[in-house]
Every structure is written in C-alpha cells, then in structure tokens.
Amino acid sequence: MTIQEPFKVNPVFLEKIWGGDALAKKLGKYVDTAIKVGESWEVSGENPHQSTIHNGPYKGLPLGDFCEQYGKDFVGACEYTSFPLLYKFIDANDKLSVQVHPDDTQTISNAWGIRGKTECWYVVDAQDGATIITGLKKDITRNEMRTAIADGSFRSMLQEETVHPGDLFFIPAGTIHAIMAGTLIYEVQESSDTTFRVYDWDRYDATGNPRDLHIDNAIMVSDCTAHGSARITPVIIEHNGYTRSVRVICRYFSLEEYILTKGVSIVISAKKSFSVITAVNGAVTLQCNNSTFEINRGETACIPALSDYTIMSKEMSTMLISSVPDIFNDYVVPLRAHGVSDSAIIALGGNIREKNDVLRAIESTHLSMQSV
C-alpha cells in the first residue's frame, strides 16, 4: 500500500520542573499555563508519549501504531520501519540538568533500548545572554571526571556558549550538555529517551528528594575530549522570494530552514524518506498529492516518502524541514552544483571528525570511484 496523504500531528505536552509558558506565549500552543510545561513532543512514535495524527484518513491513530501498520510505505527507503526520529519544542524557563546520552552501540549492548541519542538544537528564541553547555573546555580522563563530580569542580570544566535566535547546535551522542534558562529550542533527535544525569543543580523532585543522578553510566558513555564550539555554520542559498539554509546533516537526520516572504510558492522535491515540516514563525499552505491544509506557527506536519510538495507562504514565514538523508545525493551533489565548497559542506556534519557523517560520505564515494 502506498501512503500518499500528508498529515498534521497532535503533540504531547509534558510537565517539567524547569518548564514555563513559552509554548503558549511564543508558539500559540493551547497548553495549561497553570503548570510548568517543558516539552511539546511534536512528532513521536515513542510510548507512552506517541503523538496522534490530526487529519486525513488516519486521523486519531497514534504515530507509532501507524508506522507499525504501514512502515516503509510512509517512512521510506531509510532502513527503518518504526518511526526513527523524535521532534520536540523545549521551553527551558529554568536550566535543564547536565546530562549525556549513549550512542547506538552502547545503547544496544547495554540493553537500554534500540537507539542512541544524537540530536540538534535550533534556537527559536533566547533571552539576552542565554547560554547552553556543549561539552568540555579541555580534555579530561574518566577518572578526572569522576573526581570532579565528587568534589564539586565538574561545573567549571564545562564549555558554555552564548545563544541567539536562529543558532543551530549539533550534539552527537556522548556530548555532555545542558540547555540553560531562557531558551526556547526546537530539537530533532534519534527516537530515544535514554538520558544519564551528571548534575542537576541540587534540585529536589516533587516528593522532596534529590533528583536521581546516573554517574557511573554517564562516565561510561561520555566523550571526554574537548571539541570546541558545537555551533554549525549554515550553507545559505538565496532564491527569488525565499532563502534556503542547510543547517545540519548527519546519518540520522538533516535539517533545513526556509525563510519565505509573503505570497511565495515553492516546490520541494521528494525525498527517499519521510519529511517533517514545522512552522516556527508565520504560516504556509501545504499542497501534497491530493491534500491541501495550513501549517500555522507552532504546528508540525509529516510528508510521506517519495512525495513532492508545495508550500505557499501566507505571510513572512520560517519553516524547518527535516528528513533522513541520502547524504551524498541529497546534499553533496546539489550543493557542489551551487558552487559550495567541500569544506563548507563537511562543516554541516559537525566538528568531531570521527563522528562527521558528511565527511564519511564524501570519502567513501571517492574511494568507490577510485576502485572502478
């Protein structure tokens, strides 16, 4: 069965000790402002917080259940049958814990789940002077990490970066990190909720007990090498009436930003995988196969694999579009055709050479051509 109909999704709102009211005030979401809503799981196949299909013939069906039934007909040729990614808005009214996530191999070998957690953060909004933690200031050993956690000096070892609206940070699995107070983030990540807290600012849970830490597991999976800034420099391509910016590329996901002036209509070519489109500002009309509907600020829609679609801006709008990429054919070839240097393309994969999937794709293709 071929899935041709795109659909919007109903998010799941999660209360968090560090949450606030930015989802309602800045994205227009209908949330209970009497509680601290910290996360909106926009597109999720993860139990127990599956988002549900909002419209169309599969209205009301949880996304994970939908993918179990239709699998590759929707997800596409990206080696997954379950939904592989998780999309969130994160309202950090207060700072999140200092934490780390395992990679795929660590997760599977320790029976923590089926996927690790590599992620990226697009900064939707930030207060003046807001920061995030993105790794270490200098290389340390695991023994030094354990000692610093015990004596309270670990906080001084963390790299803190100032953030601004529109910034993009790439956080590979193993990176020690924290979203700090005063930021509204759009996060794309592997579909996993495995998190190990290193430090939580001496906070207490609702029952008056210190929040759990996971020191041994955190030390085991942490990247203890300093890599510098996690901020990604975009590749920006100007078009008549809109700007397309490629923000990050890895094996798990890519993320592009489209800024459209009012009244612009653009056709976006089909991908081998599904696509996800989120409006962080403004509104567009989406046309795909036989469906037409609006995506307003704060809303998210899913596009089936192998589907061209058109977005028409109703006002000045910013859209974020994501998929599971064929790195070389979706990005390296067309960006080279636009005159973008290989060094700029490779930089979209982050600054950790051994975890840069763009570099790996270019090198493997080069070796394959040499062997012909």
Question: Could you please describe the fold and organization of this structure?
Answer:
With 372 residues, the chain is an alpha+beta fold. It has 2 domains: 7-221, Sandwich (Jelly Rolls); 235-371, Jelly Rolls. Helices cover 20% and strands 35% of the residues. It has 9 helices and 23 strands. It has helices at 22-27, 63-70, 72-75, 104-109, 142-151, 215-221, 327-337, 342-347, 357-371, and strands at residues 7-10, 12-20, 37-43, 52-53, 85-92, 98-100, 119-126, 131-136, 158-162, 168-171, 177-179, 183-190, 196-199, 235-239, 242-249, 254-260, 265-268, 275-281, 283-288, 291-296, 300-303, 309-313, 317-323. The chain has an 8-stranded antiparallel beta sheet with strand order 4-1-21-18-23-16-15-14, with no helix packed on it. A hairpin with a 4-residue loop joins strand 15 (242-249) and strand 16. Helix 5 (142-151) packs antiparallel against helix 6. 46% of the residues are buried.
